[in-house]
Automatic annotation (TrEMBL):
<dbReference type="GO" id="GO:0004633">
    <property type="term" value="F:phosphopantothenoylcysteine decarboxylase activity"/>
</dbReference>
<dbReference type="InterPro" id="IPR036551">
    <property type="entry name" value="Flavin_trans-like"/>
</dbReference>
<dbReference type="InterPro" id="IPR003382">
    <property type="entry name" value="Flavoprotein"/>
</dbReference>
<dbReference type="Pfam" id="PF02441">
    <property type="entry name" value="Flavoprotein"/>
</dbReference>
<protein>
    <submittedName>
        <fullName>Phosphopantothenoylcysteine decarboxylase</fullName>
    </submittedName>
</protein>
<dbReference type="GO" id="GO:0071513">
    <property type="term" value="C:phosphopantothenoylcysteine decarboxylase complex"/>
</dbReference>
<dbReference type="GO" id="GO:0015937">
    <property type="term" value="P:coenzyme A biosynthetic process"/>
</dbReference>
<dbReference type="GO" id="GO:0010181">
    <property type="term" value="F:FMN binding"/>
</dbReference>
<feature type="domain" description="Flavoprotein">
    <location>
        <begin position="24"/>
        <end position="223"/>
    </location>
</feature>
<comment type="similarity">
    <text>Belongs to the HFCD (homooligomeric flavin containing Cys decarboxylase) superfamily.</text>
</comment>
<keyword id="KW-0173">Coenzyme A biosynthesis</keyword>
Length: 237
């Protein structure tokens, strides 16, 4: 992992990295056990040397990264993974220096920096927030500030959502409404959001049914497609 400049605040560091010539992946996890799949997603992109990854973890997502076994990485392990230049928690929005007028704002700088935002997993709670336009943490602030026109950033950048939740949460009529809002108002060929619908499998809670996040390989393939990453046979990408 590249070492960030500790003399600058998080927002200033992101602003300084805007024009580094790399593809920029903003990878976010929310409060679902599928957060532990972040390891496979990042390692699935490890061969791309011209890729910079910045990770956002909600408070609930961070609780799954305890490093108890090989499947469940620690926060320190995620920070040290290939191409990961930073991991952000909610408190990074406001620190470490006190807020001052005219200072860089982290959620705005992350939006400007990102070539693509991927939220995998997207919990039922965070799905509701995205659909309703809430912006009460770092991740949802990035989503709400996304350039949908695109007038600010000059290009329409994509968001990929990979929901992951309990079967009954997924089958709840409120979830259906939230997905309908996102897919009809923000998706399609003229939109900016792509939803990777959950699959059916045995869930961590013991239930068997739909609601599980798609396999990590599908997410990696979506990232490769949207960022135009290509593998060179017999050599590094």
């Amino acid at each position: 992992m590249a070492q960030e400049n500790s003399r600058l605040g998080p927002a200033e560091v992101v602003a300084a990295a805007q024009s580094d010539g790399k593809a920029h992946l903003l990878l976010a996890c929310t409060g679902s056990v599928a957060t532990i799949k972040i390891k496979q997603i990042i390692l699935g992109l490890a061969d791309y040397q011209n890729l910079s990854i910045r990770v956002i973890l909600t408070a609930s997502a961070a609780k799954f990264l305890t490093g108890e076994n090989d499947e469940q990485p620690s926060l320190a392990e995620v920070r040290a993974m290939p191409n990961v230049d930073a991991v952000y928690l909610d408190e990074d929005e406001w620190g470490p220096q006190p807020w001052r007028r005219g200072a860089n704002i982290l959620h705005i700088e992350l939006r400007r920096w990102a070539s693509l935002l991927v939220i995998a997993p997207l919990s039922a709670n965070s799905l509701a927030k995205v659909a309703g336009g809430f912006s009460d943490n770092l991740l949802t602030s990035v989503c709400r500030a996304w350039d949908t026109t695109p007038q600010a950033d000059g290009t329409r950048k994509r968001i990929i959502l990979a929901p992951g939740m309990n079967t009954q949460m997924y089958r709840h009529p409120v979830t259906a409404r939230h997905l309908k809002v996102i897919e009809e108002d923000c998706g399609g060929p003229d939109g900016w959001i792509e939803v990777l619908r959950p699959i059916s499998k045995a869930l961590a809670c013991g239930d068997v049914g739909d609601g599980a996040m798609v396999e990590w390989g599908v997410i990696v393939a979506g990232i490769e497609k949207r960022l135009g990453l290509t593998r060179v046979e017999g050599g590094a990408p």
